[in-house]
Amino acid sequence: MNSILLFTYPFGILVVLALVIGLGVYLTRKYNLGWRLYWIGAALFIVAQVFHIPFNLLIDRLIRNGVLPTVPEQYQLLFSAVFLGLSAALFEEITRYAGLRWWVKDARSWSKGLLFGSGWGGMEAIIFFAIPLLLNYVIFLALRTQDLSGMLAPEQLAPLQQGLELFWGVAWYDSLLGAAERIMVIPIQIAFTILVLQVFIRGQSRWLWFAILWHALLDAVAVVGVRTWGAYVTEALVLIFSLASLGMIFGLRSEEPGEEAEEDDEDGKLQTGQAELPPIEETEENIDQTRFTD
Fold first, then answer.
1. Please, what sign has the CA dihedral across residues 107, 113, 119, 121?
2. N or C terminus: fewer CB in 10 A for the chain?
3. Collapsed DSSP state (helix, strand, coil) of residue 229
4. What's the CA gap between 24 and 17, in Å, rounded?
5. Are 100 and 200 in contact (CB under 8 A)?
6. Largest CA-CA distance found in the chain, in angstroms, rounded
7. What is the dihedral of CA 187, 217, 224, 86, to 10 degrees?
8. Within a domain: residue 76?
9. Chain segment 179-192, per-residue pLDDT in tens
10. Which DSSP letter does residue 105 get?
11. Domain membership of residue 175 as a residue range
């Protein structure tokens, strides 16, 4: 067993949780917003998965039972990539759109989109990374020194021992790959939110379809990457998507409510010369000079 893993696994969890919480604290304080949008984004991610995961399991069972046609072996990877990518994109982005349209009608600014997307991405990181890894860490930590041969049947013992060896046998840097991926995916989830938000800011529905296609492409590439090129290449591809998403986030930045009015006020002062007038010292001589003469 690699003893450093006793520290790297918890470290990865703590880093992700610190980012999830810290991003919420930063955005709420910087833009003077409450936590409402953050928690609504987190709740809607759960709602999306309540429908998304059972749908995927249903389709898989229908294919296995012969109700739906089996995909030829040479096309199974392509089918999995397209199907998993589209199902995730459709369920998540339509849920995101519905939430922004009917639940948080006041979320129509860039800063509120950041906060909403941070809650969504933060909850994804907790559910799909922090909680599963923490549970595995606690369970495998308790079992690593136990003699399991007398506790389990042989058919149950073999896969458990294999899992223990895999969990405690990876290189320390491999144990941090999951945390690195979650850190990269949070900006991607924020970008999805900013894209969908353009439907309401710009009044154009095509932005929803753009978000769906961007989401589907990311997930499809990840599926192909994991099964074809391995973890390192896949994470490099995720990094590219993350950087592109950051570009989208800042490229679609719009003026916050009140900024335009403040700029117009400043322009008005400059045009009328108000901003250039120096203050007049209230001396007796100056006051006499301002009086009307006969």
1. positive
2. C
3. coil
4. 11
5. yes
6. 115
7. 110
8. yes
9. 999 999 999 999 99
10. T
11. 5-273
